[in-house]
Each structure stands twice: as C-alpha cells, then as structure tokens.
Design a protein that fits this description.
The protein has 238 residues and is an alpha+beta fold. Helices cover 30% and strands 28% of the residues. It has helices at 4-18, 40-60, 92-98, 188-191, 213-237, and strands spanning 21-22, 29-30, 65-74, 77-85, 89-90, 103-108, 111-117, 120-121, 138-146, 149-152, 162-163, 167-174, 200-202.
C-alpha cells in the first residue's frame, strides 16, 4: 500500500510535470510545453491540489478520541486501559469490549449483563452464580467516573455514552447499589498518557482496513488533470 508521504510526493511530481516551471529570465510562470501564460483552469486546478493535499493531511493528523476503563478484578488486582476510537462516543459496553480484555456477557432484554472479565466472575449461562439468595451477592458492578469520584451507574453499560476523556469502571465484589466496592481512584492522565502507550487499546475499526480518503483524492486529481489536458489539446487544434 502507498503511504500518505508517497501520495504527497506523487502530487508534487504531477504539479512539476504537468503544470509549471519557473523561468530564470522571466517573471511569469510558464507551461512546461511552451512559453504561454497559465490557463485559468490550470491555476484553479493548482489551487484545488493544494487544498486537497492540505485537507487530507489535516484529517489524517487528527488525534483519535480516547477513553479509559478501570477494572477491579479483586482486592489488589486492578487493570487500567486506554481505548482509542474514531466515533464521537461509545457505549460503556463497547468501551469494555474494545479494551481487549476477555469479556463474557449475557444479552437480556434491551441490555447486556457482564458475567466475567478476564476469567473472573461467572459463566454466561449462569451470570449470577455468586448470588444464591439472601443479602450477599458478588457480581460485576458498573461505575462512572464523574466530578473526580466514582458513581454507581444507574443504567446498564449498553445505555451509557462515554466520550473523549471519559472513564468507566468495573468492580468484582460483594455488595449492592448502596454499598458495592468501587474501583480505585484514578485520573484520565494517569491512564491515557504517552508514557503508557503499552496499555493503549486500539478500536477494531481503526485496524480493519486502509484509509481510502487519500486514494479518493488522488483519483479526483487524476480525473481533473485528464480533463484539463483534453481541453487544452482541443483548443490548440482549433
């Protein structure tokens, strides 16, 4: 596959070959094929090329969104991961799945229950195996980090939205809505930093295939170049 740098080099070569050269003895830009002033259409094409290259480079340089997920597997076992994604936001369930952790869940009604994370928890066919009745129940509780503190999520992870800079948490332990064990306190910068690149999880769609935008721009440029050449040749034959 051609990289973005390769496309830029091809664009520049096309500009040199098809359009302009600077004459040392003249103040005017000249067409490569003769000492004529540049046709207005060619000038427009040049401006389009500059705009197209700048736009493609700018879009490719945009930073992806990032959100963090903190998973408390036990008393002293905590995993924190940073997930990169291109969408404006993700559901809490999608964020967990894209973290790369092994997740078993059970679809129930309009939502989905998390039964096991990294082999901690219950099988999907018996999601509440540690809740045999009574007051004691050990399960995966879901948390949102808001205003520098953990808040027990009042809705399921499939219904929440996590945007850039957001933090979600999961905790395995006994409890209920009022006394479940929260994940440890963290900050977004502690998880999603350049020094923590090894823990960066990339969203699946970011690695599924190539970015076709540069190819599309390149194709449009070739079509415009061909059209300009045809128009120029026809005018010369008239």
């Amino acid at each position: 596959m051609f990289g973005k740098d390769t496309f830029s080099k091809v664009f520049l070569r096309l500009l040199r070959f098809m359009m302009l050269k600077v004459s040392k003895s003249s103040m005017y830009l000249r067409i490569v094929t003769g000492p004529k002033r540049i046709h207005p259409a060619v000038i427009a094409l040049g401006l389009f090329l500059i705009l197209a290259i700048s736009t493609a480079a700018g879009l490719s340089a945009q930073e992806p969104n990032k959100a963090a997920v903190v998973v408390r597997l036990g008393e002293e076992q905590v995993t924190s991961l940073c997930v990169s994604f291109s969408e404006e936001s993700l559901s809490g369930m999608d964020l967990l799945r894209r973290s790369g952790l092994a997740v078993e869940n059970k679809v129930e009604g309009m939502g989905s229950l998390v039964c096991s994370i990294e082999n901690t928890g219950c099988p999907a066919d018996d999601c509440f195996c540690k809740c045999s009745g009574g007051d004691e129940c050990t399960y995966w509780s879901y948390w949102r980090y808001q205003e520098e503190d953990w808040t027990y999520a009042r809705v399921g992870a499939t219904q929440t939205k996590v945007g850039n800079g957001g933090i979600d948490g999961w905790s395995w332990g006994p409890g209920s809505v009022t006394d479940a064990v929260a994940p440890p306190s963290v900050t977004f910068d502690q998880i999603c930093t350049q020094d923590n690149e090894a823990q960066m999880a990339v969203a699946p769609e970011a690695i599924e295939g190539p970015d076709w935008q540069p190819y599309a721009v390149f194709g449009v440029v070739l079509l415009l170049l061909g059209g300009i050449m045809v128009i120029t040749r026809r005018k010369r034959t008239l």
